[in-house]
């Protein structure tokens, strides 16, 4: 298992050729015309036809063999603790295993499973800064984990948020998992966080872990966090009328998670579509949790929303890539020049009744992953977790 994944030691040039389908991650144009992608020093530099691009001097050539290239998937809601270990399930290697499910970036919603997690202001700030630093320095399997998300407590003052931001903290853990559970206090602290460039998420629905509690529509709307965390519950969802009220009452991100209520997830998707607000929908797993670790959780969400939500597969992939990247202000998640060269290469699973990868996903099947690439470096080849793909890419020169 790779903990501290290798980085490029000199100038690099990646060429992915003979691509069958390029999924952009962007709702406005989810499919790109082209069969080749070029990336230099970890950034995408060209997308188009092989004959039109400068592919000379490649340090790595990937023969896609007609497979599909998409942006690396982003899990908008995880709970890391230390390295690639989760005390919630006493499991090692969960992040690396998610990489085999196509996830190349993760966003912490709070390191809440830390044994003995401090609740005092000094302690919670220290833990957030530690987590931010630790995951900045360590990338399990190459996965980018954006961590250091403090759970706010009632004793905090504006200066605490200023100090956290100055130390590099850019996220708040789920509002409602700590002592702050009322709308007015939450709104005040979310405002302080926003003032200093810290993005916020709120717990939505019934309690999940000891210390959490019911967060209903009134608290969610008054708190006005940047992301409505697990709007479909983590695990217990709010009633439909409250979910609709949240969707219609704010313009913030609507996060749907694997560890939530699937019916409520589909209801949220339907409301967002009716409102013309699909760009607000992002996906997470809310793992590790009591229901375990889900290495294929994001892929399963894409397939479920596409098949049961009657959403074109190429659009469903946008919810797990470009939507999250734009909302979370990340430089990955979209296949466009200047973005990080983070890709998942996949094909329809063997024996799927779908004729194409998009048709198979819309029928509810998971694709087979043949390769993941982060910052232009091949991290994994055939996934140990997905079904085998009909076709697989291969590295032909390095």
From TrEMBL:
Residues 263-376 form the Amidohydrolase-related domain. Its cofactor is Zn(2+). InterPro entries: Amidohydro-rel (IPR006680), Metal-dep_hydrolase_composite (IPR011059), Metal_Hydrolase (IPR032466), Metallo-dep_Hydrolases_sf (IPR050378). This is Amidohydrolase family protein. It comes from Bradyrhizobium barranii. The lineage of its organism: Bacteria, Pseudomonadati, Pseudomonadota, Alphaproteobacteria, Hyphomicrobiales.
